[in-house]
Amino acid sequence: MVLLLVISCKKSDPEPDPVDQDQIAWAVGSVDSNSYGTILKTIDGGETWTRQIDTVLMKEIGFSGLYVMDKNNVWVVGSFNTLLKTTDGGDTWVQVPTPANPSNPNLVSISMLDQNTIWVSGEHGVVMKTLDGGTNWTLFDTNFFHCGLMQGIHVINDQVVYAAGGIPDGGNLVGFFARTLDGGNSWDSISLPDNYNKHEWIGVKATDVNHVIVYGEKGHFANTVDGGLLWYIADPIDPGDINGLVMLSDEIFWAACDFDQIYMTFNGGASWAYQPTADVGPGNQYLVGIDALDTKTALVIGTSAGYPPKGKIMKTTDGGNTWVLKDTTNSYMSNIAYAKE
Hints:
Blueprint: E1 25-31, E2 37-42, E3 50-51, E4 63-68, E5 74-78, E6 82-86, E7 94-95, E8 107-112, E9 118-122, E10 127-130, E11 138-139, E12 149-155, E13 161-169, E14 172-180, E15 188-189, E16 201-206, E17 212-216, E18 221-224, E19 232-233, E20 242-247, E21 253-257, E22 261-265, E23 273-275, E24 286-292, E25 298-303, E26 311-316, E27 324-329, E28 333-338
Antiparallel strand pairs: 1-2, 1-28, 2-3, 4-5, 5-6, 6-7, 8-9, 9-10, 10-11, 12-13, 13-14, 14-15, 16-17, 17-18, 18-19, 20-21, 21-22, 22-23, 24-25, 25-26, 26-27
């Protein structure tokens, strides 16, 4: 007779359940009263937010743009030519060297094709790329970008990249919109119908090489469905600026605007539905960033116009019919993003 003895061992401290990547999002903003830049993370879909540990890398650095590749890999850009990254979900951060620049520009926007191919834009006409994860950089001719404020950068593939922003014109900023079709070896500025470049551009997004939208000042936008052969314009969606936009598909976009205004389109911008957010958190804020998982669930971030700095994060789970305040900050917030697939 053979006796089998089976012993079951139970850990006294079991491993936590894995976090669904769809529940992970990040938000960034300016320095707070402690003089550290703001980086926030949620692992429960935005219900609660945790501030990243203040390190010397974040001292006196305000953050404007971020790209969340996945649950572990996050890149943020900010003031004084600063680029930081984490590869362990925020447990540790390292500074990625950027090209030396006498103007020490504020970096504003970042777009990634993969962990190696990264594009960054910012003040003083800065547009640059790396193909090896930040070891080496190519800084493009700032004079082509009129040494302007390039607030938006979007990489579609290894060849096609769009940049958008504002350039000086008699004391004001007017829009400048450009594209490369060969990875930056050459650039072309884009002329838009009805002189729409008279409006300063804030951002640019795309779902593929054919479907691209540029957006910005006083609710103006222009989009293409054929890779830029034709650009279509429409009446502005709001008197305030479009500060953030997310494309869920070729037809479905959400837009975040000044003064707590949110809009959604299901027909590629032909018409927009207004989504009221009255009395949700601190009022009369600029909504500066938005991201969405689908047509029901989205996060939006807002910031105060004046002093003292105030920020807020709101969420919808019913397609924008209702928005709920999830967090407030004592800093000027600037961007928000879910972890990518």
